[in-house]
């Protein structure tokens, strides 16, 4: 922005899930704030950084950026505001304007697990829910099963497998999200989006649901996500030859890692710093296969009910190259840290450093949501993705709320220190301090996903 920065209205980059989502001006955010206040009342909406009459000094610009970042995080993490149509449509509109993609009809290609391509005609301005429904109707998947599936942004790897980037969220336009990455390796894929395999029964009742589930199971076995020994492999093969899809799935359900999402190899600080690990999410746990420095492989699991809270932090090294250097490069270092109840009175932080930290967080959130829905006696079928048409717009119910990953704002001026720890210098603070206090001025108090499933844990669970 050079030295003329004060002549143009300040624009702030909003990163959602570690990716540049949109650029907005202070006045646009102020407009959003006023609309939220009108709808939800001043006592619900967090305070907004005040207007200034005079041009801001660089220090004030930075201060305002930090205040706006806190504001956006607070809104996103409030279940009412963060899930509101007002907030989500603001982000969708800003995303479309920033990427300068006009509203028009386009054909979007969505992949199935078996590599099959489904082409749907949609509008560039269609939100995730609309695109999911378009895919379902093209496949003849009945309405009451749509809620069992989701669209995921993936990156195709060399061997034809997929690396999961994130579940597409309600505040984005899938067509814009995938085209703005300008990279053909990024694709959108349809996959089941629940964890409890007893829901498979609902899905298998219908021909299309059965086919989708079967294709996904076959693909997970082929990619080595589900562990199979020789004898099981022989049985699966003979069921495949007989085209006994239900029996095939029934057998797969008994195998290790069935229904888990497997992540790319990454690094963890458990049991010691710098261990290489393969993390899988499923069955209400994160499973670790850790390679110790001694090259020994150890396996262990962290139950989601024993995680007190977790957070995603990202540090962005300022790029030396021209700004806007190609997206998808590993400029952002992402970490997922969770606080785990190791034994009756010992909590310990475990950190995973992975470009897929957001997706891990989304998995944790959705496992907790599913546990809570079950506890309250709800089901996915009763409210497919909690659809309720409100003024003709689709709304999700709170039970199926997507993960609250806080949008992160970038600085508008280039004179910041090179490593911006976006979640306010977490490293320099002893973590002990955080776990007992949630006061507003405490470090990163609002970066946390508190885990409500944790509260129901009893001694017998330990």
Automatic annotation (TrEMBL):
Coiled coil: none
Function as written in the Swiss-Prot or TrEMBL entry: Critical regulator of endosomal recycling of numerous surface proteins, including integrins, signaling receptor and channels. Binds to NPxY sequences in the cytoplasmic tails of target cargos. Associates with retriever and CCC complexes to prevent lysosomal degradation and promote cell surface recycling of numerous cargos such as integrins ITGB1, ITGB5 and their associated alpha subunits. Also required for maintenance of normal cell surface levels of APP and LRP1. Interacts with membranes containing phosphatidylinositol 3-phosphate (PtdIns(3P)).
SMART domains on file: PX (SM00312)
CDD domains the UniProt entry points to: FERM-like_C_SNX17, FERM_F1_SNX17, PX_SNX17_31
A UniProt-annotated Pfam family: PX
Domain (Ras-associating): residue spans on this chain: 104-195
Any one annotated GO CC term: cytoplasmic vesicle membrane
Annotated keywords: Cytoplasm, Cytoplasmic vesicle, Endosome, Lipid-binding, Membrane, Protein transport, Transport
GO MF annotations in UniProt: phosphatidylinositol binding
Region (Disordered): 392-422
UniProt key word Protein transport: yes
Membrane topology term: Peripheral membrane protein
Compartments where found: Cytoplasmic vesicle membrane; Early endosome
Span of domain PX: 1-98
Major place of residence: membrane
Name this protein carries in UniProt: Sorting nexin-17
GO biological process, one term: endocytic recycling
Family of this protein: Belongs to the sorting nexin family.
């Amino acid at each position: 922005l050079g030295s003329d920065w004060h002549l143009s209205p300040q624009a702030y980059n909003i990163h959602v899930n570690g990716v540049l989502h949109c650029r907005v001006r202070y006045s646009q955010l102020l407009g959003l704030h006023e609309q939220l206040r009108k709808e939800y009342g001043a006592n619900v909406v967090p305070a907004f950084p005040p207007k200034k009459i005079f041009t801001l000094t660089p220090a004030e610009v930075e201060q305002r950026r930090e205040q706006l970042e806190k504001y956006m995080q607070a809104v996103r993490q409030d279940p009412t505001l963060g899930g509101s149509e007002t907030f989500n449509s603001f982000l969708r509109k800003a995303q479309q304007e920033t990427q300068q993609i006009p509203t028009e009809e386009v054909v979007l290609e969505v992949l199935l697990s078996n590599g099959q391509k489904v082409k749907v005609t949609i509008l560039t301005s269609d939100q995730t829910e609309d695109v999911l429904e378009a895919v379902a109707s093209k496949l003849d998947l009945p309405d009451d099963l749509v809620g069992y599936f989701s669209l995921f942004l993936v990156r195709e790897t060399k061997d034809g497998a997929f690396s999961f980037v994130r579940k597409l969220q309600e505040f984005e336009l899938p067509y814009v999200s995938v085209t703005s990455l300008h990279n053909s390796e990024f694709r959108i894929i349809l996959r089941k989006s629940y964890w409890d395999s007893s829901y498979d029964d609902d899905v298998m009742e219908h021909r299309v649901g059965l086919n989708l589930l079967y294709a996904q199971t076959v693909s997970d076995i082929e990619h080595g996500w589900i562990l199979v020994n020789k004898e099981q492999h022989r049985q699966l093969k003979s069921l495949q030859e007989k085209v006994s899809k239900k029996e095939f799935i029934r057998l797969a359900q008994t195998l290790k890692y069935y229904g888990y999402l497997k992540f790319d190899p990454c690094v963890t600080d458990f049991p010691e710093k710098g261990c290489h690990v393969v993390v899988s999410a499923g069955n209400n746990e994160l499973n670790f296969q850790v390679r110790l420095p001694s090259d020994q492989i150890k396996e262990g699991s962290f139950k989601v009910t024993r995680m007190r809270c977790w957070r995603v932090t990202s540090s962005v090294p300022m790029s030396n190259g021209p700004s806007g250097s190609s997206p998808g490069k590993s400029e952002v270092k992402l970490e997922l840290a969770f606080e785990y109840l190791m034994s009756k009175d010992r909590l310990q932080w475990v950190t995973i450093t992975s470009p897929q930290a957001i997706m891990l967080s989304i998995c944790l959130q959705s496992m907790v949501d599913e546990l809570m829905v079950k506890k309250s006696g709800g089901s996915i079928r009763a409210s497919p993705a909690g659809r309720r048409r409100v003024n003709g717009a689709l709304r999700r119910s709170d039970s199926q709320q997507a993960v609250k990953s806080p949008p992160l704002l970038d600085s508008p001026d280039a004179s910041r220190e090179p490593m911006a720890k976006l979640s306010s210098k977490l490293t320099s603070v002893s973590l002990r301090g955080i776990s007992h206090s949630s006061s507003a001025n405490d470090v990163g108090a609002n970066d946390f996903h508190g885990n409500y499933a944790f509260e129901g844990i009893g001694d017998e669970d330990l």
